[in-house]
Amino acid sequence: MLNHVALIPDGNRRWAKKRGLLPWQGHFEGAKVVEKILKKALEMKIPYFTFWGGSLDNLTERSKKEIEFLFKVYEMYFKRLLKEKRIEKEKVKINIFGRWKEIFPKSLKIIAEKAIKETKNYKNHFLTLLLAYNGTDEMLDCIKKISEISKKRKIKVNDNLIKENLWTGSLPAVDLIIRTGCQGDPHNSAGFMMWQTAYSQFYFTDTLFPDFSPQEFEKAIRNYLKRERRFGK
Fold it and tell me: What is 4-134+173-225's CATH number?
């Protein structure tokens, strides 16, 4: 059975460039797709859906204008989420992991925290947004935390201790990672959720994210369900 799907959306800027548009116009179109994919994931009764909304590099090293527009897109998306009746009806818990609290403007932090607070008691479905997130950054932070703990008391480093100190430690293993916009270059990035993806299956598609449809999302899920998983055995 399928319990946890993670989506790495790639291709917003390339989609815009192909059409002679500005990069942030691709991000705007991509945000519309997220809503459609979430709806499909709920229809398919997928308990956990994780979306990588932006790496730390995306939100610190690109042009100031593009980053400001990304923040506006995030704010628009959170406002729509808070108004979305399906979130309450399906009891979707929203979580956000990454260094977003360190770099988001105050107005965006307020609305992001509101989305978390208003859905904190929901337990039917789990929508996780990774913002200002890198997997390598998460693992380094985890190691630092464990190192600090070890200075205060004797510890036994095991799976549980690591999960307790990961940002995403509350999430189950990822069954399927979908990455869009590969165009002959299928790859992972920045150690994406490296602990939960140890045995993940991948679905790569050339489709640029603004063109990624709920139908192709369902196709990826159906493809996964036909596979035989060996978990390294």
Answer: 3.40.1180.10
